[in-house]
Amino acid sequence: MLREVNPGTVTEVELDAEDRFKYLFIALGASIEGFKAMRKVLVIDATFLKTVYGGMLVIATAQDPNRHHYPIAFGVIDSENHASWNWFFRMLRKVVPDEDGLVFISDRHQSIIKGVMDVFPNASHGHCIWHLSQNLRPKLTGDKDLGVEKFKECAHIYTKTEFSIQYGDFRRRYPRAAEYLDNSIGVEQWARSHAERDKYNIYTSNSAESMNAVFKEVRKYHLLPMIDAILEKFSEWCFDIDKYPCIHGIAAAIKHCRNEWRTTDVSIYGLCSKYYLIETWALAYYKTIYVVPHESQWTFPADYEEKIAKPPDYKPKKGRNQETRFPSTGEKRRKRTQNKARPGINLESWLQPPPNDENVRMPISYTQSSESEPSEDMSWARADGNWGIPRYCFCGTYVKLVVCTTGNNQGRKEYKCPNYEDGGEHLQKWWDDAVNEEFSVVHNKFETQKESIHHAYQNPMLESLRESVRIMRAQLDDLEKRLEEKETQISKLRDLLAKW
């Protein structure tokens, strides 16, 4: 259906020997057509998916003449390895030809480097200078931020002469970093002045990283809802080394040609690359991306209906799912310093009473479950000595969580005042009773919120909003029909003009 509503779209799904899902590739027809008017620079990156099945979301993006991100293709692979990246690049070659002038920008992942070399031998491959700057930090001495800025300045220089001067100074100040760049990277991979082909103003993988940030929440979805969300977002968007001169250069060229012995017939459009002309920019967005219609309107070939794609195998992992990004090749994860004044919170520390920093007098709490009700103000529920987890005894002493060592309740946890054994009325309460009461407070609060949401959903005002949305949808359907009629009329006029 995606190919039917978006002509020219290229899709590919690969299953393993057991008919389990393995790879997915999608390149929309509008994006393929629009890339013909783009600078031939592709930014490649992958980010992990947050479902139990794992996998990676791969995105290939370009930049339009106005420096806006322009997605070309995306896909899903099992992991970042040679086989999966090679498959993605082979699919990408169906929509992006391997030709001189094509440049890839990515981090230094070895599978990406190998995939570009194998599938796009005529293309050039540059590395993201931001990732390189993070790799350099451990090798810089003194002010690391200053060293990173000096490296970026060297990367942005236009001429080889100026680069030799600036990079020579960088090499003297940071010999370890320069040795790493010379031996492990290669100057042609990151320096604009030594690049084999034009990278224009694109020297980081920020385009793909920005896409990853946009789809941060979407990556928690399973495959089909995630694809629908990505396509919906795409439909909303559609949608001399730098190759554009500065205004001072244009003014100087015009004045220079106004001398008596030179012609004054100078066009500023001849001083600018075709990729920055408005006509070229318009070509990138002249096609529309349509979302997939409702399932009731889907039509499948007979052989497709028989195919069944099973989910990939997975092994349940301990702990929570990965939420933060994986560090790239050579990048070290920053250490997080813990505030000693505020230790981390876990269930055990939460159930422990707080330190004795207040003098709070509390009513008596007996050994059985409390018969009183919690405070109406939930934030003060723990202030009731006869409800929930106690903090202090009525005598003002901080209570402790201990284990009973005598009687039938031996081994049972209890909250107990240190002065309990001295006689008198002091606090003692079983731990399980206190926790049950504490959780009942949370449960009551949840039910209250649930009830308020239920009443809000049944608000008559929402009915009018739903009716307004329904009317707007009907109007949109009518506009779509009119647009189709206009397109039909335009095509007929074009045929008549061609015959005429």
From TrEMBL:
GO terms for molecular function: zinc ion binding. Keywords: Coiled coil, Metal-binding, Zinc, Zinc-finger. It holds the Pfam family MULE. Residues 462-496 form a coiled coil. Residues 393-434 form the GRF-type domain. Residues 309-323 have a biased composition (Basic and acidic residues). Residues 309-358 are annotated as: Disordered. It comes from the Eukaryota. This is MULE transposase domain. It comes from Arabidopsis thaliana x Arabidopsis arenosa.
